[in-house]
TrEMBL record:
Coiled-coil residue spans: none
Protein name: [fructose-bisphosphate aldolase]-lysine N-methyltransferase
SMART domains found in the cross-reference section: SET (SM00317)
Keyword Endoplasmic reticulum: no
SUPFAM superfamilies (UniProt xref): RuBisCo LSMT C-terminal, substrate-binding domain, SET domain
Record organism: Acacia crassicarpa (northern wattle)
Keywords: Chloroplast, Methyltransferase, Plastid, S-adenosyl-L-methionine, Transferase, Transit peptide
Lineage: Eukaryota, Viridiplantae, Streptophyta, Embryophyta, Tracheophyta
Main location: plastid
Domain SET: 71-295
Annotated positions binding S-adenosyl-L-methionine: E87, G88, L89, R229, N249, H250
Family according to the record: Belongs to the class V-like SAM-binding methyltransferase superfamily. Plant protein-lysine LSMT methyltransferase family.
GO cellular component: chloroplast
Database matches in PANTHER family: [FRUCTOSE-BISPHOSPHATE ALDOLASE]-LYSINE N-METHYLTRANSFERASE, CHLOROPLASTIC, UNCHARACTERIZED PUTATIVE METHYLTRANSFERASE
Amino acid sequence: MASSIFSVLQGSAFLSSPISHKINLFTFPMPPKTPLVHLRKPLSAKSLASVEIDATLSPAIQTFWQWLWEEGVISSKTPVEPGVVPEGLGLIARRDISRNEVVLQVPKRLWINPDAVAASEIGNVCSGLKPWVSVALFLIRERSRDESVWKHYFKILPEVTDSTIYWSEEELSELQGTQLLNTTLAVKEYVQNEFLKLEEEIILPNKKLFPSHITRDDFFWAFGILRSRAFSRLRNENLVVIPLADLINHSVRVTTEDHAYEIKGAAGLFSWDYLFSLRSPLSVKAGEQIFIQYDLKKSNAELALDYGFVELNSNRNSYTLTLQISESDPFYDDKLDIAESNGFGETAYFDIFVDRPLPPGLLPYLRLVALGGTDAFLLESIFRNSVWGHLELPVSRDNEELICRVVQDACKSALAGYHTTIEEDEKLKEQKLDSRLAIAVGIREGEKKVLQQIEGIFKEKELELDLLEYYQERRLKDLGLSGENGDILGDLGKFM
């Protein structure tokens, strides 16, 4: 799927569009099966009268809140409640909340995770599936069941988000030239193929377990729910959806991800269970929204793909260089061996963020891919243990000039693929834009700025080529055969 952007001498492909390495598709190990006990009680008039919630909220949200009360998840002392916020739904402080105060706890019996699937009627037929696929199928089936424990939760979930997987062709056209477009199309193709396989191997052969017709759109809905709402950093959990906790929204003001815990505690009047405990990372006044940080390391493109928003913070803007050692390279085997010995492979991905230094390993890998001609002696086995150290510094003028020229050409080519300029995007941002167009404008402007930054870095390097010290000069200096100014000492100078 990834198409080569450019090649260097000896046929070595350098850059290609990043797709597979950016897609974290919930490939987590399946946790062991454990029985789940659901304490289900009918909603009673007495209990409903005890529930305190904003009466202007929709009936679905009010019923969801009542269900949480019946399940013992909330009480009159719970410091948060659902509320309508600019993001859609969020958690609002019912009183002043201090930093790191626990704002909610949800017992494991209400979590939706591979354990819940394993303990259900479809557990046996789902045992061989990828964990995220089994949970997605479970979500779809439970949503269609009137007797589902989570029926009131499903009614407050959105049908779609602004994630790029839900965009129309016209909306996606605004991402022309971006890496996000390629990634989005790759994800959609992947999910489509997983659904077709699931339909053929599990759904159709087990119609008694899946009496309701399951469509491709259903599967994309479940996939989007998992991408945007699943927690994956708990101690014993890799993929879990937690009702109520998933209402909390993201804020750039939160600079730590240390807010969620899995603890052992009381899960009701007569039971103990694992609890998902959520703390507020910031002090919050009554009536204000409570936020967390979804992921400090994600780029704006990843935020757009997973959650359907981007940050105005330019630090999230990134562009991924994909470097590759071509199989047609005459030194392919040697280069691959060196790359693998230093933690890389035939293909290497480097995320470059605006206003940050080039990532470690990028320049050595570039120099390795471009290595050839009279520099090829460094590929000999005698240098195998030291060659990466040599690649950390300029090898030769020809090698350094090549990577500078090729990277600049690649950046120019990529910049030509967008249908707008940075100036045009900046003008658009001054207008009131549709949420999805605003995401598209932010993504393409950000990518272009990073490309310009990369181009500028290598243009500056090219201007300094005559000032650099290369391998031969360093080697002669180490042997004491070169002066401080690079002059060759003694009779050896006659032959150089």
